[in-house]
Write a structure and sequence with these properties.
The complex is a heterodimer of chains A (227) and B (597). With 227 residues, chain A is of the alpha+beta class. Helices cover 35% and strands 26% of the residues of chain A. Chain A folds into two domains: 90 residues, Helix Hairpins (Orthogonal Bundle); 126 residues, Sandwich (Immunoglobulin-like). In chain A, the strands form two sheets. Chain A has a five-stranded mixed beta sheet with strand order 3-2-1-5-8. Chain A has a five-stranded mixed beta sheet with strand order 4-10-9-6-7. Chain B is an all-alpha fold. The chains are: A alpha+beta (227), B mainly alpha (597). The interface between A and B is large, with 86 and 101 residues. The complex binds protoporphyrin IX containing FE and copper (II) ion (2 copies).
């Protein structure tokens, strides 16, 4: 049985920051969890009914209320501020990288179609190259994915890149990430999208820059041959 | 409206002559209605449980035929050869949540305890609008029948999730479910009227029918939480109903409110659903918080620690609950600035939850704790709600939610608050007030067996779901093994399923105890727990009209172990011995402002 609380290995630039935040929350909540449960168990054992015991009449303590209210408030606010920094890195429109490689991912029941600019260097033209259930990206370069859907809502989930965003029909939603390792990583659909939802998987293939260019030109040649 | 309107004696004259039908079926007596809700919602709880067991069968033993030759009962459109189909799996997930949320937990909270406790705890003879109350009950079996019927129509029951995200839910084109989805919508639209009429009654009754001396800050926390819940119901349910009607139009007459064709907006559905949905999750837990406060104070023989803070926290949750809905939509496509405001409000709502937890601990502190079944369930509520609240913090952090959203971590979170919290709270409530409902005690031995096995197997089943989520397993997937990276989680899933089966099975002990004690349980007397509340001053079960004469309230509900008294409790209506100036009480209608203290 896998009962680990450790996040799986991350392979994106913002992955470590997000994981750190997760571990900070894990520590804080872990300590609060242990302390409250221990106090709870201690109280019910220590103050269990015994012959002759009378409870102490205590209606409360405004000092205690102030302490635990403000302590909780400070901790959660601090976590929110910490979270904001990372959220902004990932989602703030001004933080989207400049030199990104851009591609479109269009979801439909039950597949992912990635489209890359063809020989004209433009996305959304007739010579776009399309790969089904495979998303090819270069390593160490930011990538912008324009998420769209043809039918219902799907969710583009790259667990090891710490990427998840819904593909909503009628909208184009850009997200970005930068892979730090070459290799193949799972792509999953995280939003219930119909009876084939469970098998709407795919692969993210991270190439070295050279390999990526080679792959792209091979695909272009293949596409031209088909015509 | 004055408290005199139904304090009159019109009731006592005719109730002896009511026939069987008016007494047991079309009853207007709040206690009978509570019993009716109790029986029907426990049945729906069982149905929801059976659906859950089938979900867990598929996840624990994917692709294997259902045991005990169950496949023979199910048609080929659901489980040919006993093997659950993916489309049936989606219906199971959807209908499990729908039955549990709308037909089990909500009526158990508001329908059962709202009806039972509100009039009894505030010293009223019935609800403000008894006939509306009867209607509120009778709507539920109708809605339930429509919902159940949807399993048997062509295409099967709804399979778009209990959240029914558009456009998946807008057309059978996407799911293969046409009629089933329409019946789902119709059933919930009908059911909404039950909640609204019920809530109207609860709100009015608490405001207008409190016994003399029952000031706002002498109201027991169970009634306080039911009162706040009633407000949430009254305001949130119409929003859901509106959304459901628009979705029904999209389904049936080709409108495009939520469909992208024709400029509809799928995300609008999510906003409407969660604007209802977040207040809804508090509807599902605030009453349980109230029951737990009562049980812990009573069984620790101590006043509730920080009674005023408890009330303020309830009210704070009720307000903040309206401005956090976007935390369900962090990854749906929202302006990142908006995401941050929802993160801020969400962490703030964790504060009143923490306040309540610390106050429960404070109540136990230096108490004289009696380990009866209600106390065990109430303490379990606290222990498990802590877990659910803390997992909420992970999800409140929008960046962490990028990873955890729509994984089993969410499933763990919501089951810690809704089963560990709400359901254990309901068990605390049922075992505590059972003697008042039926006049007999439940069996302690059976109660303790049920609690022990439930508590252990509950945790074995649901705690590892956090780990599944952290490992990236998505929710609502029929067969995780489709993904290579999830295959190593199969043994955890099998373990969880086995624990769920034991957890579900042991509920039979509860059912046996519940039924057996009704006839054979020890006679309880009026006040078996030496409690202070007004409900314990009338006979068990209380007669029609409840109180022989209108009670007068002299003090708050938690005067346990008062140093000036020999006895360790002090009923709310016991006249002070040295009170020469006559009863000291405030007119309830003049004290309405005091709740914003
Ligand atoms: C400490 C307070 C809490 C916080 C900070 C919190 C936070 C959250 C967040 C952020 C989500 C959305 C996660 C996602 O879908 O990615 C969520 C989901 C959920 N929460 Fe909570 N929560 C808290 C308490 C509660 C309580 C008390 C209940 C119910 C009694 C509850 C019931 C739910 C449910 C049912 C869902 C899942 C809904 C669904 O997608 O099906 N939560 N919670
Ligand atoms: Cu999907
Ligand atoms: Cu919420």
């Amino acid at each position: 049985m896998n009962l680990s609380w450790l996040m799986p290995e991350s392979v994106s630039t913002f992955g470590p920051a997000l994981d750190n935040l997760y571990y900070v929350i894990l520590w804080i909540t872990g300590i609060v969890f242990v302390v409250t449960e221990v106090v709870l168990v201690y109280f019910i054992i220590k103050y269990r009914h015994k012959e002759g015991r009378k409870a102490t009449y205590i209606e409360g303590s405004s000092k205690a209320e102030w302490i635990w209210t403000s302590a909780t408030a400070v901790i959660v606010m601090a976590l929110a501020i910490y979270s904001k920094g990372i959220w902004d890195t990932i989602r703030h429109p001004d933080m989207f990288p400049e030199n990104a490689y851009e591609l479109n991912v269009t979801a439909k029941q039950y597949e992912w179609n990635a489209a890359y600019a063809g020989s004209d260097g433009q996305l959304g033209t007739s010579d776009d190259i399309v790969s089904r259930n495979q998303v090819h990206v270069p390593v160490d370069q930011p990538v912008i994915v324009n998420l769209q859907s043809e039918d219902v809502i799907h969710s583009f989930f790259l667990p090891q890149l710490r990427v998840k965003h819904d593909a909503v029909p009628g909208r184009v939603w850009p997200i970005w990430f930068e892979a730090t390792q070459t290799g193949e990583f799972p792509l999953a659909c995280a939003e219930l999208c119909g009876l084939g939802h469970y098998r709407m998987g795919g692969t993210l293939i991270v190439h070295s820059k050279e390999d990526f260019d080679i792959w792209l030109s091979e695909m272009q040649i293949e596409a031209e041959d088909d015509e | 409206m004055s408290s005199a309107i139904s304090m009159g004696d019109s009731h006592s004259e005719d109730h002896h002559h009511l026939g069987f039908i008016r007494t047991y079926i079309f009853s207007t007596d709040h206690k009978m209605i509570a019993k009716q809700f109790l029986v029907t919602s426990l049945l729906f709880l069982a149905i929801g449980g059976i659906l859950a067991a089938m979900i867990r069968w598929q996840l624990g033993f994917p692709g294997q035929p259902l045991p005990f030759n169950l496949g023979a009962i199910l048609p080929n459109t659901m489980a040919p050869g006993g093997i659950i189909l993916p489309e049936f799996y989606n219906s199971l997930v959807t209908m499990h949540a729908t039955f549990m949320v709308f037909f089990a937990l909500m009526p158990l909270m508001a329908g059962v305890f709202g009806n039972l406790l509100i009039p009894l705890q505030i010293g009223a003879d019935d609800m403000a609008f008894p006939r509306l109350n009867m209607l509120s009950f009778w709507i539920t079996p109708v809605a339930g029948a429509v919902m159940l019927a949807s399993f048997f129509v062509e295409g099967g029951a709804a399979g778009a999730g209990w959240t029914s995200y558009a456009p998946l839910s807008t057309s059978g084109e996407w799911t293969g479910v046409y009629m089933g989805q329409i019946l789902w919508l119709v059933s919930l639209i009908i059911l909404g009227f039950s909640s609204i009429t019920g809530a109207l009654n609860y709100v009015t009754t608490v405001i207008a029918m409190r016994a003399p001396g029952m000031t706002w800050f002498r109201i027991p926390l169970a009634t306080w939480s039911l009162f706040i819940t009633a407000w949430l119901l009254l305001l949130a349910i119409p929003i859901l109903t509106g959304g459901l009607i628009l979705l029904l139009f999209d389904q049936t007459i080709g409108t495009a409110f939520f469909r992208p064709e024709g400029s509809g907006e799928p995300l609008m559905w999510q906003h409407i659903f969660w604007f209802f949905g977040h207040p809804e999750v508090y509807i599902l837990i605030l009453p349980a918080m109230g029951f737990v406060s009562e049980v812990i104070a009573n069984r620790s023989r101590k006043p509730v620690f920080g009674y005023h803070s408890m009330v303020v926290a309830l009210v704070a949750i009720a307000f903040l609950g309206w401005i956090v809905w976007g935390h369900h939509m962090f990854q749906s496509g929202m302006n990142p600035f908006l995401g941050m405001s929802f993160m801020a409000t969400t962490v703030v709502i964790a504060v009143p939850s923490a306040i309540k937890t610390f106050n429960w601990l404070g109540t136990l502190w230096k108490g004289d704790i009696h380990f009866d079944t209600p106390l065990l369930h109430a303490v379990s509520f606290v222990a498990l709600f802590v877990v659910g609240g803390l997992s909420g913090i992970f999800l409140a952090s929008a960046p962490v939610d990028i990873y955890l959203h729509d994984t089993y971590f969410i499933v763990a979170h919501l089951h810690y608050v809704l089963v560990g919290g709400s359901l254990f709270g309901i068990f605390a409530g049922i075992t505590f007030w059972y003697p008042k409902i039926f006049g007999r005690m439940m069996n302690e031995t059976l109660g303790k067996i049920h609690w022990t096995v439930s508590f252990i197997t509950y945790n074995l089943a649901f705690f590892p779901m956090h780990n599944l989520g952290v490992q990236g397993m998505m929710r609502r997937i029929y067969d995780p093994n489709q993904y290579e990276f999830l295959q190593s989680l199969q043994s955890t899933n099998t373990f969880i399923s086995k624990s769920v089966f034991v957890f579900a099975g042991i509920q039979i002990i509860f059912a046996i105890n519940f039924l057996w004690s009704m006839k054979k349980g020890k006679k309880s007397g009026d006040n078996p727990w030496d409690s202070n509340g007004l409900e314990w001053t009338c006979p068990s079960p209380p007669p029609h009209g409840n109180f022989a004469e209108v009670p007068i309230v002299y003090r708050g509900p938690y005067e346990y172990s008062h140093p000036d008294r020999e006895q360790d409790f002090w009923p709310q209506d016991e006249a002070p011995v040295d009170d020469l100036d006559g009863p000291e009480y405030t007119d309830p209608n003049e004290s309405t402002e005091s709740n914003d203290e």
